[in-house]
Amino acid sequence: MPAPAVRLHDLRKSFGDVTAVSGIDLDIHDGEFFSMLGPSGSGKTTVLRMIAGFERPTGGTIELAGRDVTRLAPFDRDVNTVFQDYALFPHMSVLQNVEYGLKVKRVRRTERRERALEALGSVRLEGFAERRPAQLSGGQRQRVALARALVNEPKVLLLDEPLGALDLKLREEMQIELKEIQRRVGITFLFVTHDQEEALTMSDRIAVFNNGAIEQVGTPAEVYERPASAFVAGFVGTSNLIGGVSVRPEKIHVDTQPEGPAQGDRQALGTIAEVVYAGAVTRFVVDLEDGGRVVALQQNQQTSSMDVMRLRGSRVRLGWKSVHEYRTPQED
After folding, report:
1. Kind of pairing, strands 59-64 and 156-160?
2. Alpha-carbon torsion 17, 81, 83, 186, what sign?
3. What is the CATH number of domain 6-232?
4. Where in the chain is the domain with CATH 3.40.50.300?
5. Which of 14, 33, 171, 204 minimizes the number of CB atoms within 10 Å of its CB?
C-alpha cells in the first residue's frame, strides 16, 4: 500500500509556555482535497507552516510520500504554498510571475515558458499571459498565484486561507473553481480555513481543530451529520439541544397550526421569539414551552418576507424525525 501524501505523527509545537499544537496524528491521502478547519488560535495554520517547513516542530515527525522531512528546509520539500496575500510581482507580467519559480531553479527558458503556459491553462487564464497583476480581478490574481504554485508540480499544495480577501460572491465562485482545478490536476490539496461552508463545499475530508488538537476527521457529511463532540456540533453549523439530543435547524419543521398533525415522530410546542428573513431561507428562533430555545430553518419556497415577519409571537408546533437526532459524547 502506497504511503500517504502527508503523514503527521505526534506532531507538537510550543511557543514558550504556550502549546499551539499538541500531539497531532493524521494521514492525508494522495490526490485528496483535505481541509483543516477551526477557529483562530486552534493550531491549524501552525500545522500547515510546519508541513511547509516554515516552523520547526517541538516534537513528532512529518512525512511526505513516506519521506521524513521534519528537519528539512522548505525548498527541500516537494510542496508549494499559496497564501491569502498572493504576493504577485507588480512589475512582471502574469506569465513572468508564473515562470519565476522555474527561473530560480534554472529551468531552461523554452521549458519554463511551456510549463507556465500549461499552468495558466489549468486555471483557465490562457489569454492573460501578458497582463500585469493590477489589470486583473481578485479572483484572477488568486488563480495566477495558484498557477505559480502548480507550475512547480508539487506533490502537495498547501493553501492558507487563500480566499479570505475575496468578496462573498467571488469567494463562493472560487470554491467551486478550486475544487474543479484540484480534480483536473490530481494534486493533493491541503486547505486551511475557519469558514465552515468553505470546508464543507470543497473537501473530500475535514479535520476539525480546537485548542491545538483534532476533534474529528471525516467526510463533510460525517462531520456535519454525526459530529464527534459538542465543539464540532457547535462550530460546524448550528445545533439545537432538545431533551438531551442535538438536532440541526434545517431538520426541524415549523408548523403554525399547533393543533394539527405533527411532522415527524418527535415534536415540541413553543412560541416564535424572533424571525430572521434571509431571502432564500427564514430562521425562526423558538422559545419552547418545556424550556430552552431552538433555531429552525425553513426554505422560502412559497412565502415572502411580509408573510414570515407576521409570525413573530405565534404559537407553533415543531416536528422532526428521530433519525435526525444525534448524541455527542459530551452530552452523555
Report:
1. unpaired
2. negative
3. 3.40.50.300
4. 6-232
5. 14
Domain 238-331 has CATH 2.40.50.140: yes
Which three three-digit cell numbers place residue 144?
Answer: 495566477
Q: Where in the chain is CATH 2.40.50.140? A: 238-331
Taking only the tens place, the pLDDT of each residue in 259-313 is 766 678 899 999 999 999 888 889 999 999 988 899 999 888 777 777 788 889 9
**Residue 276: other Cβ atoms inside 10 A:** 13
Q: 319 has which bridge partners?
A: 253, 267
For the whole model, what pTM was predicted? 0.85
